[in-house]
Amino acid sequence: MAEQTDLAVVDDDLPAGVDDAAVPVGPPEKSALDQKINDIFGGAVVRKDLVKAVKGNAIVPSFVLEYLLGQFAASDDEATIQSGIESVRKILADHYVHRNEAELIKSNIREKGRYRVIDKVQVQLNETDDAYEAEFANLGIKQVLVSPATIRAHPKLLVGGVWCICDIEYQHSDNARVVPWILGSIKPIQLSNFDFDGYVTSRREFTTDEWIDLLIQSVGFNPALFGRRAKLIQLVRLIPFVERNYNLVELGPKGTGKSHIFSEFSPHGMLISGGEVTVPKLFVNNSNGRLGLVGYWDVVAFDEFAGKKKRTDKALVDIMKNYMANRSFSRGIETLGAEASMVFVGNTSHNVPYMLKHSDLFDELPESYHDSAYLDRLHFYIPGWEVDTIRSEMFSDGYGFVVDYIAEVLKSMRNADYSDRYQKHFTLGSDISTRDRDGIHKTFSGLMKIVYPHGEATKQEIEEILRFAIEGRKRVKDQIIRIDSTMAEVKFGYSDGAGDWHAVTTLEEDEYPAYYQRGGHVDAGEKQADSAATSGEGPTTATTVEEASQAVPLFEGYREFQENQRGVSYEKLLLPYLQDATEITIVDPYIRQFHQARNLMELIATLALSKDPADEVKLFLVTSESTGGPEKLQKQIELLLRVKQAAAVAGITLDVKFDATIHDRSIVANSGWRINLGRGLDIFQFVPNDAFDLAVRLQQYRQVRSFSVTYIRGGELSSDA
């Protein structure tokens, strides 16, 4: 994630108990990226905070609002934006149908003879009269005649309902059987056409980081608060829209936005409650031959899918397994194919180590779905426990694609196949099965189409996508192996052009090695050795750090830590190597801001708790001056002075030297160790200033940034110290 906020400033800016989202603000300052987005995609992008500004109490998906904003406020000119907002508000006030105002709208239609409404429309075929009849969800009118030509142009009206802008007329008849409501015109709310070649050409104007940030802003989030891995997780949620027959699952804590994409983002997706699923609704009604959701929608997502005690239809599960594997289902004696991707989202009630120790990561699924044959059809498992709970500051006020524009872009690429784009550089492991390979290929293809639609990516960029695709499928397969004892272990990884093997692990495998493998847990002694060897955090199970260092030799060498990993703290990562040191030199050019000074203070606190109160430790800090002008330099000096004063209470003296030439980060102690830290002390992601969040008090509950550490025995103190 991005640089942490000065928590002291956050506290000073708002009175206690005031939500920052409630504080009125003017137009946000446009970033360089926002300016570039408008210059290149002008007319196809919109400021993302405008949706909240116009939504009010309208219960309508974001793509409907952004469709309207795209018509009136797709600009970076503030006057045009404000005028557009007022236009959209007026349209919603005049034409959006609130259920409690339905009678008023019906009266307007009668009195004016013709009136425009925005409502969700579903059409059914009346076999008796051989006529298509529409039902308006909020307006509450039924049996409105629809022409066959309209159905041929918009077949989704028959399944699930579509948000539309409609002109409705009123014409009373003395015949009681004649419905007085007449459909004058109907226009589904979605983009009618766009220039795909122009989209691909414009992609070349952006760096990979810029493009990913544009996509994250298009989803509605502030990319500055997401790390690279967190951004990729968000983008995986888009793969079902760009990849045909993609099977995705996401399980995790509540409040992380699992279903948001599938209900708000695209007019081509349908979100339904897991309890509402039936064979006729999903696949086909054999009594009348009518196709279900998979025949008309690009994505069918099942919300609230988890729940061990939920009732399930075994016939539905069997048909679903066949469809997910073969992309087909039966209608009587006829076999039909479909392209709808399937998404399953649900909540977990236990944390990851508990599930790994006592069951598996699919433990929350209904019994009929907790089946290796069904699970093996899943292409990717999004680790929902890595996704932050949605907070107000996470939403973007920058520019992103109007969602119906990007939805059409993704839909247009469903026929493309990018799955072989890695094969020039890498080869998957030979014992990866066909089904595992399919899952990896579909995820890789989907992410390539989303991030590199022009097909131009470096070897390193391709490798990043490939590793992520392998990890998501490995997470599925590793849990199946825990469930089904007949399944053989698989080595997930790939070889590069030189023939070197690159193994791929899941993040939870690195975090909880003692519980991850088949069997669920190991004995205490094995756990201690395994944890120290795998994480590189030093010994963790002995009573004290001193006893631990005697029980397990300190690790020497290089370790990498993945973004979002938990369980890392200065106590485990650094303290075993600094134990008994009386002189320590820290070289870190970025001890400038509040959160960086706080990191230093937390290391000092860790040292203070471990040393004898009667001993003294000399701490030398070599850092660089803040470059933001005299005020920022003065702020930096004040922060370091406060740290120095606090450290003195514990018998730790801090001396600071500014050196503009330093770049590398290291810690050298007279205990005989040198520690090279790729990110210095700044290894943790942003933590909200919440007194009731364990991560504020305990480092091991924080997610880390991606970083590396090298332990070198025999390091010497800097001569400058």
Number of strands: 26
The overall average pLDDT, rounded, is 86
Record the strand order, biggest sheet.
Answer: 20-26-25-24-21-22-23
Shape: globular
Helix content: 25-40%
Main sheet: strands, sense, barrel: 7 strands, mixed
- Cα end-to-end separation: 33 Å
- Amount of beta strand: 15-25%
The structural class is alpha+beta
Low-confidence stretches at least 5 residues in length (pLDDT < 50)?
Answer: 1-26, 520-545
How many helices? The count is 28
User: What would you report as the Rg, rounded to the nearest angstrom?
Assistant: 29 Å
Itemize the secondary structure elements and their pairings.
Layout: H1 7-13, H2 32-41, E1 45-47, H3 50-55, H4 62-72, H5 78-95, H6 102-112, E2 114-126, E3 131-136, E4 144-146, H7 148-153, E5 162-170, E6 181-188, H8 196-203, H9 208-219, H10 228-236, H11 239-242, E7 247-252, H12 260-265, E8 269-273, H13 279-282, E9 284-285, E10 290-291, E11 299-303, H14 314-326, E12 328-331, E13 334-337, E14 341-347, H15 352-358, H16 372-375, E15 380-383, E16 399-401, H17 403-412, E17 427-428, H18 434-451, H19 459-483, E18 493-495, E19 501-503, H20 507-511, H21 513-516, H22 524-535, H23 545-551, E20 557-561, H24 570-573, H25 575-578, E21 583-587, H26 594-610, E22 617-623, H27 630-649, E23 652-658, E24 666-669, E25 673-677, H28 694-697, E26 707-713
Parallel strand pairs: 7-14, 7-15, 8-11, 11-14, 21-22, 22-23
Antiparallel strand pairs: 1-16, 2-3, 2-5, 3-4, 5-6, 9-10, 12-13, 17-18, 18-19, 20-26, 21-24, 24-25, 25-26
Helix pairs in contact: 4-5, 9-10, 18-19, 26-27
